[in-house]
Amino acid sequence: MKQIFSDYGIEIYDSKGHFYLTYDKGELVVNITTIEISKSDAEKAQLSAEDAYQVILKHQNNAKGNSQ
Questions:
Q1: Which residues of 13-50 are buried (b: 16+ CB within 10 A; e: fewer)?
Q2: What is the pLDDT of residue 66?
Q3: Burial class (CB in 10 A: 0-12, 13-18, 19+), 67
Q4: What whole-number distance in Å separates Cα of residue 44 and Cα of residue 31?
Q5: Is residue 65 helix, strand or coil?
Q6: Model pLDDT, residue 27
Q7: Which is nearest to 59 in space by CA: 16, 25, 15?
Q8: Where are the alpha helices (DSSP H) in the chain?
Q9: pTM of the full predicted structure?
Q10: For residue 65, what pLDDT is reported?
Q11: Tens of pLDDT along the chain (68 residues)?
Q12: Exposed / middle / buried, residue 57 (Cβ in 10 Å: 0-12, 13-18, 19+)
């Protein structure tokens, strides 16, 4: 996987045309979570912190990471 973006508390990776957004959804402890997103959502998430947050909300039910 190649990291293509890192800011606003997120990282976006491209793996052979599949895009993944990684973020920390933990409150008191780190809980790194990864979600698969579309190319258009990857582009949107890079625009601003608010856009990144909207992409996370859209895909949060498909998150893979540590469960609590």
A1: beeeeebbbbbeeeeeeeeebbbebeeebbebbbeeee
A2: 52
A3: exposed
A4: 23
A5: strand
A6: 83
A7: 25
A8: 39-45, 49-59
A9: 0.85
A10: 62
A11: 999 999 999 999 999 999 999 999 888 899 999 999 999 999 999 999 999 999 999 998 877 765 44
A12: exposed
Q: How many angstroms separate the CA atoms of 15 and 61, rounded?
A: 21
Tokens representing residue 32 in the block: 């790194």
What secondary structure letter does DSSP report for 61?
G
Q: Which two tokens stand for residue 37?
A: 């997103």
- Of residues 48, 52, 49, the one with CA closest to residue 21: 52
